[in-house]
Here is the input.
Amino acid sequence: MNKLSILLRGLIKENPVLVSMLGICPLLAVSAQVSSAVGMGIATTFVLIGSNVSIALLRNVIPDKVRIPCYIVFIAGFVTLVQMILHAYAYPLYQALGIFLPLITVNCIIFARAEIFARKNTVMNSVMDAAGMGAGFTMAIFAMASLREIIGSGTWFGFALPVLKDFTVPVLAMAPGGFVVFGILIAVVNKISKGKAIKRKEFGCTGCPSAAVCSVAEKGDAE
Here is the structure.
């Protein structure tokens, strides 16, 4: 695979949220406002790139038996760095993201790319993969937040929109609205790809970063 295809596949074909169904928790939690959603997307992308680069550099050094704890150390380190930067220079965003900022540490998107891609590929390819997946996540959360904020609150990036502010659907700005918009976006992606993007195998143990230590996966392999 060339570097461009690695970069682009995270947008639609292998979108981590709308196809692989990973990272749904922050997607639903911080997508009521576009500003928070963009901040989460950028933070997640930064951690993705940093962890992928670190793991790709040390892939021949990290023993298989302790690779998951090593991933956690790398990811937690980059998340801590992001927290410190936001706390110092973007405190309102730091407050808006709340507990979901440190929870990037256990985001399945980052673990999955570390296990599936970074530990098996070069640094440059790992950077392209992380950037593509991060862009796919950011695109998904941005689209979802835009729909929820515009239709649910009549604003966009906090600015009131003429006419729309008087004809809102408040439920979309609430928790149930997140599930509604999420379902709509999945349907749109499925329609665009004519059902080819969402494959059954992507929901199995193969795509799980913990498959190697999971008894269910081992049982499946044995069968």
